[in-house]
Amino acid sequence: MTPLLTTAVAVALLLATPAHAQNSARQEPPPQPSASSTKPFLAIQEVKSPGGITAWLVEDHTLPIISLTFSFKEAGSARDPRDRQGLARMVSNTLDEGAGNLDSQAFQKALSDHSISLSFSANRDDLVGSLKTLTRHQDKAFDLLHLALTQPRFDQEAIDRMRAANISRIRSSMTEPEWIAARFLNDLSYGDHPYALNSGGTITSLTAISRDDLAGFVSNNLSRNRLLIGATGNITPEKLALVLDQVFSALPATSATQTLKDTSIDHLGQTYLYAKDIPQSIIQMVQPGLDIKDPDYYAAYVMNYILGASGFGSRLTEEIREKRGLTYGIYSSIFDMDHTNGFSVGLSTENKNVAEALRLIRTEIKKMQDHPVSAQELNEAQSYIVGALPLSFSSTAAISSHVLGLQQDEWPMDYYDHFPARIRAVTAADIQRVARRLLTPDRMLTVIVGQPEGVETQPLPTTLPNVE
Amino acid sequence: MVYKDAMKIFCHLCAVIILLTLAPYPAGAQDRAAEKVYHAESFTLKNGMEVVVIPNHRAPVVTHMIWYKVGAADEPRGLSGMAHYLEHLLFKGTPTLAPGEYSKRIRALGGNDNAFTSNDYTAFFESIAVEHLETVMKMQADRMMNTNPPPADFTSEQKVVLEERRQRTENDPKGFFTEQLKALLFINHPYGIPVIGWEHEVGALAWPEIKSFYQQHYGPNNAILVISGDMTAARLRPLAEKYYGELTPIALPARNWTSVPPMIAQPQLTLHHAYIKQPLFLRIYRAPSLPQSRNEGHALSLLTEILNGGSATRLYKSIVVEQKLATSISFDYDGLKISDGAIWISASPAENISLDTLEKAIDNELRKLIREGVTEQELAEAKIRMQDSAAFARDSLSGPAMTVGQALAVGLTLDDAEYWPRDIEAVTSTQVQAAATTYLNPDQIDKRPYISGYLMPEKKPEASPDSTIMKPEQP
């Protein structure tokens, strides 16, 4: 519920992995310099249970903590029926609201009495779960996870309570201009494709979701053939093998998934306005990007870092914030989901500065296409991307999430060992080439919320798409 | 989940909004309640600068933090926002470092950096490979003493700060409303002034007055260096002496802050706003901070955990699960302040439930708590949950530096941070009940003033109670 960005870059181990685990917006791949070829950046082991369930494990006995992060492929919100938008989200909210013979209060109390963190979330593509426990409570933790996955109760009281909380969240979000902009950007980008739907549900669709919908979702999606698991911490491979069977073996072996088409961002070259009486306009821009398996991905990654992903030092921040004071923050990112990908830019600026900010963004993007980046810029970007890698392997949970991310993206275990070389191999010419190939500064979809001055826009309807 | 709103801090860059979400300082398991949490080492440089090292050798990286014992509460009257603006200006250059270069160099070394300002302190931090720590210290020492932004950079950064304020406040009715609530709760107290500053005052700040503030407060003897990660005191000491130890101490002004006078009326604020679709109930009490009263502060921390330590604890169970009056509720205690702490209650009413009904129900819970106290079982369970958080707290590179630094910056000691589990263990149910009676009583306005806030949708003529479901308003 709260948007927190922790700074806590925490402790990484000698292991590590990247991972965009749950987020579909993957803007942060890279790994680190592997000093010697013998010592991998992340010491991942594949653990196979007697029952045939596989997990990737990074063993680390520094602290008495175990973290398990897992996903069910293609069980995300994009598969929600149109009249049940928010179903995957509701499942993620109610899986930990009672299971087996424990009702909601008993289940939650069992978690908190043992200091166990268990949470589920749904992104557009996948359903993701995460469990963190102290070693001394691991048996209880695995038992509760097993119950949640295999015998969720979905008591009406809990369903109604989570539904009410979600509707309340939606009404609360309706105040936020960033959220409003995102609703329209989504809707305009993806049109009839399910990615256009609201993964958080609409007030109407949430109201329609029944216990049968939730139970049906579980039996149709939570199966072993769609399961990926990352584990980290104070657990041996032998013990983990037993745990995997204990927790997951009762799930059905297979389930069928609904096929989705690929899609691309629509309404390119159009600028839309949702008029709102606020002093500062929110601007969100998007255009097609590239696949993470594209040979140009690393060049695009470095290019995006230099252009706008790095915060301080990025060209967009330099020109728009540092030199002119037009914004508190401007970022660009590249993102990749199962069926689409994109490049986006976002900022907020006082209404009277919108035209200038838009002009500067276009100028900077064109500059990236027209001129090679300097050797110094390139070198500094590469140094950061490679050097900062360990900082994102900061905690037990972060590592297991990265280990899951590798599997979700179908990278090999030694991905991070090669990542630095791939980043270092990017040249200024590569960056210019990928900027020309990819970026279309005059053909982006732009949504503005506020009262911008001096910009030609098309009006958006007052009713938010997929909200009520 | 518990402390999510307790600490809103203003940062140099919006990417990092730090809400210190852990309990003040995490603790150790119950059976280890007497053990240290961090095993930190400390020493003091000859110029008075305090140094703390929290070793953590999992990876060859460190978080380096400098905490200055100056914040928004130290600003001269009429110059609000100065401390936070100054924090931004520390990125704007010295005679030997061009504006913006600081962060760029950190980035080029594979590090991340940022800064934040609160009422009581201003902190700067970098997370980076340990091999580059010396470079960080050299640059940080330089900007402690030699910050001097060129006029053009001073002006552009002022615009940035105003954009930051718009983003957090003018664009957000809830942010704006909260600012007003605090202003009323902390009448005549510097905590009533927003850290980011009032818009008209921030917009008028000039470098000479900020420079004077900088020279008065930024010096080695007003700073605490905290490093967590792959470092030890023995290895750090020569570096600290080389880069910080040679700096000349400054003459520090006393920090005499004005305080809240007695109030006899219960302040209550209501905002009807066209952009609000979900009503919200807020209440803030003043309460002792941990430095003001460690015993009461620890009792209030435990009380918070008992009331709001998950969905199986009192407030959520009663108000959300059983009575169905709200869809969410939170109870936060912000005790890491030099002067008065605060307790925040917030709740989103369920559909068709008025804020008044919700407030009465919350008051009844508080009265029950005051009348009957907490059970020994509730107390014991809350202690275990809090103490278990110790192991999790160490599962982080920067977290321990953040937590220990904050404790020291508000006037607690390193032992306070290290032995927090022991202090929590010592709290009795009688103390918890006494803290509730003294500080949360809704029926003693004259003794314990609090403020309630009702944030509501635009008034509709003749609105029937359930009209919002059938006809949601259009923005």
Structure write-up:
The complex is a heterodimer of chains A (468) and B (475). Chain A has helices at residues 87-94, 104-113, 138-150, 156-173, 177-190, 203-208, 211-221, 237-248, 297-309, 315-322, 354-370, 375-387, 396-408, 415-424, 428-438; strands spanning 44-48, 54-59, 65-72, 117-122, 127-134, 227-233, 271-275, 280-288, 330-336, 341-350, 445-450, 458-459. Chain A has 468 residues and is an alpha+beta fold. Chain A folds into two domains: 44-248, Cytochrome Bc1 Complex, Chain A, domain 1 (2-Layer Sandwich); 271-389 and 413-459, Metalloenzyme, LuxS/M16 peptidase-like (Cytochrome Bc1 Complex, Chain A, domain 1). In chain A, strands 1-2-6-3-5-4 form a six-stranded mixed sheet. In chain A, strands 9-10-8-11-7-12 form a six-stranded mixed sheet. In chain A, helix 9 (297-309) crosses helix 15 and helix 11 (354-370) crosses helix 15 (428-438). The longest helix of chain A has 18 residues, at 156-173. The two termini of chain A are 19 Å apart. The model of chain A is unreliable at 1-36 (pLDDT under 50). Chain B is of the alpha+beta class and 475 residues long. Chain B has two domains: 10-243, Cytochrome Bc1 Complex, Chain A, domain 1; 268-470, Cytochrome Bc1 Complex, Chain A, domain 1 (2-Layer Sandwich), CATH 3.30.830. Helix content of chain B is 39%, strand content 17%. Chain B is built from 17 helices and twelve strands. Chain B has helices spanning 82-89, 101-108, 133-146, 151-170, 173-185, 199-202, 207-217, 233-243, 294-308, 314-322, 355-372, 376-393, 399-409, 414-418, 420-425, 429-439, 467-470; strands at residues 10-11, 41-44, 50-55, 61-68, 112-117, 122-129, 223-229, 268-273, 280-287, 326-334, 341-349, 450-457. Chain B has a seven-stranded mixed sheet, with helices on both faces. A five-stranded mixed sheet of chain B has the order 8-12-9-11-10, with helices on both faces. In chain B, strand 5 and strand 6 (122-129) form a beta hairpin. In chain B, helix 9 (294-308) crosses helix 12 and helix 9 packs across helix 16 (429-439). At the A-B interface, helix 2, helix 4, helix 10, strand 10 and helix 12 of A face helix 2, strand 5, strand 6, helix 4 and helix 10 of B.
